[in-house]
Specification:
Length: 332
């Protein structure tokens, strides 16, 4: 009988993790899923453990083991093998929430749709869950452990782009959100426990970072242009100061027109360093300039209210003298 879900797990030398993930799957309703383990020719005991699980659940678990070009090549191979109506990708070491497949099944429309919820972050003990649109997806990704893709999506927009070895799922999700044929639906459900130990948590995808602005403009077009035009209108003729030196700025630096005067960061360990050949200062540096001559772009959603309160106390006015880049992306 054809299953509703194809759960694809790419693996390579994960003998200490695979059983944990498989157990979370076999505890679901067996009528709902097939589990496809795509192994990259592991040389530890991963395959022996997989075979053991397959022998116990031959109608639900299948696997292949062969050399591949990385995790997204393995995921693409899993797509080719999948027979389920919806495809879901689980990292080795990550686990499904109890009875989650039954809960999600009740929400499905059985058509071209991307259905997503949230994940529990095991390292921080936080839940990462939010409703996404084109603005939000342009700023950050949805964890693939939170997403169910109808199988037709891969016929509509293709598979994962192997040019992005760390963030191909982000590029894929941008394509999904840009395509009107694909319905995007948010579920207020935590789908899985995310171990946060995959390669994307420790390695930077330089190719994706360098091409992100082109990817956004190519697939999200007018949506992103509206946001950037709004920012660039505000900074016309002014000196640009960036508050924040982390991923928020680094991932979107190519979207800001004009020369950056300097950076501000509250982290004393960063003050005195340089980023993009510009000095990083404490907030006190702002008072070296006339308020009317500068525009501050804040790249921090988490601390924006605190930063905004500080700036307003010092006489700066929101949108006239400063704005939150992330808020502009989310709130249009």
């Amino acid at each position: 009988m054809k299953k509703i879900f194809s759960i694809i797990i790419p693996t390579y030398n994960v003998e200490d993790k695979i059983t944990k993930s498989v157990k979370s799957i076999i505890n679901q309703n067996h009528d709902l899923y097939e589990c496809i383990i795509v192994d990259g020719n592991s040389d530890d005991n991963t395959i022996e453990l997989v075979k053991k699980h397959q022998n116990q659940y031959p109608d639900n678990i299948k696997y292949i083991s062969e050399t591949d070009q990385g995790v997204y090549d393995a995921m693409n191979r899993g797509i080719d093998l999948a027979e389920g109506e919806y495809l879901y990708f689980l990292g080795a070491g990550d686990t499904l929430k109890p009875n989650i497949l039954t809960k999600v099944k009740e929400k499905l429309k059985m058509k071209s749709e991307l259905v997503y919820g949230g994940v529990y972050l095991e390292k921080t003990g936080q839940v990462d869950i939010a409703k996404f649109d084109q603005y939000r997806i342009s700023n950050r990704n949805i964890s693939h452990q939170a997403i169910f893709y109808h199988n037709s999506i891969f016929r509509i927009i293709g598979k994962y782009n192997l040019n992005y070895p760390i963030l191909a799922d982000y590029e894929f999700n941008i394509r999904c959100f840009s395509n009107e044929k694909i319905e995007k639906r948010y579920l207020n459900l935590v789908i899985a426990n995310y171990e946060e130990e995959g390669i994307s948590s420790t390695v930077i995808d330089k190719n994706f970072i360098e091409n992100k602005s082109k990817i956004l403009l190519n697939f999200l077009g007018a949506t992103i242009k509206d946001v950037i035009n709004k920012i660039n209108y505000n900074i016309k003729g002014k000196k640009i100061i960036i508050w924040g030196t982390s991923a928020g700025y680094k991932d979107n630096r190519n979207l800001i027109k004009g020369d950056i005067l300097c950076f501000i960061d509250s982290d004393k360990n960063k003050q005195g360093d340089s980023l993009d050949d510009k000095k990083i200062y404490s907030p006190d540096k702002l008072f070296d300039y006339n308020k009317e001559d500068i525009f501050i772009i804040v790249f921090s959603k988490t601390y924006y209210n605190e930063i905004s309160d500080y700036l307003q106390e010092k006489g700066f006015k929101e949108f006239k003298n400063y704005c939150c880049f992330v808020s502009l992306m989310f709130d249009n």
